[in-house]
Amino acid sequence: MRELAGWAGGSHTAGRVTHPTYRKGAGPGVVIVHEIPGITPEVLTFADDVVDRGFTVVLPHLFGDPGEPASAGQIAKAIAHVCVSREFTKLRAGVASPVTDWLRSLARSLSEELGGPGVGALGMCLTGGFALAMMVDDSVAAPVVAQPSLPIPVGKTRAGDLGLSPADREVVRRRVTAGCALLGVRYRGDPATGTRFDTLTELLGDGFLKVELEGKGHATLTAHRQQVAVDRVLDFFDERLRPG
Fold it and tell me: pTM above the 0.90 mark?
């Protein structure tokens, strides 16, 4: 695996699935799942903000070339990988991507190691909704969905789908009702998010906290970063992972 300056390389295995990971920092744990095309410099900048706030950050490497800037070539390479990979559910509604099982295991392992109320989980774009699937596990205490884009919002059903099975959807609802809030971040004019924020508001009510930015940007925390969104995510991690 490639080295990233200042980040410790490792891996996590769940069942027969192994993915590389990068780790940095100290304090409560946060799993940040990168967007297409991978762990770009912008993703690392945001991850360093979380580290600097006093958290242990783990970056799973699911596709792309870590540390490489986003480019047409890198984006095409990542999309090609996702399209053929069975770990990602692209169009089917009412199911979670299989890779979320591995991500739950990673979050659970980090929580068991570090203790406390649990860990944070943040996905963005293609992986935005993965934080929802991860919070089915009690180890995830601070879930954040940033511009969730799967399944691809083609048609009304997919546009509002959360990428969860009916059973997992009910677990998410129960957890939020019991006090585990969910934070969502998006640009209001971003078509990639479909109507998922409406679905989440209907399902979770006041337990779904929103940062909705004006305009038609997409990558709220990275390429089209807005500091107000970054600050709200950091505050959310503080509130949920540092009780009292």
Answer: yes
